[in-house]
From TrEMBL:
This is 3-phosphoshikimate 1-carboxyvinyltransferase. One of its GO terms (molecular function) is 3-phosphoshikimate 1-carboxyvinyltransferase activity. Monomer. It comes from Alicyclobacillus macrosporangiidus. It catalyses: 3-phosphoshikimate + phosphoenolpyruvate = 5-O-(1-carboxyvinyl)-3-phosphoshikimate + phosphate. The lineage of its organism: Bacteria, Bacillati, Bacillota, Bacilli, Bacillales. One of its GO terms (biological process) is chorismate biosynthetic process. Keywords: Amino-acid biosynthesis, Aromatic amino acid biosynthesis, Cytoplasm, Transferase. Its EC number is 2.5.1.19.
Length: 446
């Protein structure tokens, strides 16, 4: 992997030479969070290789330490975690989840069941994000959680003996599903079952299995049903984290847009709950090839090769949204360079991400000369094959910043992204990797 760069507040991204080469992407963010949490909860030693060393996962790591995990970082980039066997220590200070919704929501399931007392907070963005979606089901399980205005962080939690729940997710959220499954596993009694009407990422189910937990999974007409029995001991495991498909999406999109490009991204997680972006890109007419497919730590992994070619507009149906939710901002950028209209519906969840991503995408596209309509639950982008360029505000959201950097590599006048440091949330080496592939970038401090 390429080197991390110092904090950069702004980035100018220019059109230029084709992007060519073979690169890897940093580890999967969702899987890294879960590996750290399960390492904390497990009995014995957990070894995590290929973990994402970025701000979000550092929040989880710090919290795991505060809850009693002993964590060592090896020189060759592995984490060695000695777990607590489920006996969480009372943290001496507030648990700071930073910008990370996954940390706050998924750790909450464990904390509510096992920590004597804890307070969770986060940055300004996280403190505006909805927490009732986890507080409500956990409260039904017997948890004692107080929240600011009843629904926002900071959250104060008094650990309690929880009971199992049979719960149908009202929003398609892997974070909520995971919080409930973890709480159910650590509960005092009663089986916990979660039904998800729409499939969401299933890394929790896969990784719990790797930690020796029996997870019962059924595909029913009402959706996927996942059941766990309490009292099962997590056993420390060796986890190899695949490359993050959501980070790879930016490189793939750049290769699809910049004339003459051909890029291979190696070792990327290809779990079917995460590959909606690749399927959508195929429908837009891009040439995407998968190779070297294999299974690592319960997840399908492979190499993705993309070559530049013309794109056309497509419809994104609500049912496919969970499989590409984090890739919708960069898909909107691709749509701007496509010929024809791209419509996304059923994606209201975008409004409650790190920023309101529907508003941020629409504002950003307009600033670079693209026509876009905003809907409550999505957007319509009117692609004209080319894009003028301009300046865009990231709103402190890593995926908005990287999406518009990609736009700059193909827009006539390039794109200036204001608020670049947030890229460190999930992909600190992004600019360096783009440059390695041949992109022209120029950083500056505002
Ligand atoms: C995540 C689930 C998704 C996703 C987020 C990571 C996870 O959020 O957008 O980036 O690791 O479980 P929701 O659970 O809110 O859908």
């Amino acid at each position: 992997m390429t080197e991390k760069r110092p904090l950069e507040q702004g980035m100018r991204c220019f059109p230029g030479s084709p992007l060519r080469g073979t690169v890897a992407v940093p580890g999967d963010k969702s899987i890294t969070h879960r590996a750290i949490l399960f390492g904390l909860l497990a009995e014995g030693r957990t070894e995590v290789s290929g973990w994402l060393d970025a701000a979000d996962c550092r929040s989880s790591l710090q919290i795991a330490r505060m809850l009693g995990a002993e964590v060592a970082e090896t020189d060759d980039g592995r984490l060695i975690i000695h777990g607590t066997a489920g006996n969480l220590r009372e943290p001496e200070d507030v648990l700071d989840c930073g910008n990370s919704g996954t940390t706050m929501r998924v750790f909450l399931g464990a904390i509510a069941a096992r920590a004597p007392f804890a307070v969770l907070t986060g940055d300004g963005s996280l403190r505006r994000r909805p927490m009732r979606r986890v507080i409500d089901p956990l409260t039904d399980m017997g948890a004692a959680i107080s929240a600011r205005s009843g629904r926002f962080a900071p959250l104060a939690v008094q650990g309690r003996a929880l009971r199992g729940i049979d719960y149908t997710l009202p929003v398609a959220s892997a974070q909520v599903k995971s919080a409930i499954l973890v709480a159910g596993l650590l509960a005092h009694d009663g089986v916990t079952a979660v039904t998800e009407p729409e499939a969401t990422r299933d890394h929790t189910e896969n990784l719990l299995t790797a930690f020796g937990v029996h997870v019962k999974r059924a595909s029913l007409p009402a959706g996927n049903r996942i059941e766990v029995e309490p009292g099962q001991v997590l056993r420390g495991a060796a986890v190899a984290v695949p490359g993050d498909p959501s980070s790879a999406a930016f490189l793939i999109a750049a290769a699809a847009l910049v004339p003459g490009s051909a890029v291979t991204v190696t070792g990327v997680g290809l779990n079917a709950t995460r590959t909606g972006f690749l399927r959508a890109l195929g429908r837009m007419g891009a040439q995407v090839e998968l190779g070297n497919l294999r299974k690592v730590s319960g997840e399908v992994v492979g190499d993705i090769t993309v070559t530049h070619g013309p794109l056309t507009g497509i419809e994104i149906e609500p049912a496919e949204v969970p499989s590409l939710i984090d890739e919708l901002p960069v898909l909107a950028v691709l749509a701007a360079f496509a010929e024809g209209t791209t419509r996304v519906r059923g994606a209201a969840e975008l409004r409650v991400k790190e920023t309101d991503r529907i508003a941020a995408v629409a504002e950003g596209l307009r600033s670079i000369g693209v026509q876009v309509d905003e809907a409550e639950d999505g957007f319509t982008v009117y692609g004209r094959g080319t894009v003028d360029g301009g300046a865009v505000d990231s709103h402190g959201d890593h995926r908005i910043a990287m999406s518009f950097a990609v736009a700059g590599l193909a827009a006539r006048r390039g794109v200036t992204v204001h608020g670049w440091d947030c890229v460190n949330i999930s992909y600190p080496s992004f600019a360096a990797t783009l440059e390695q592939l041949g992109a022209s970038l120029q950083a500056w401090s505002e």
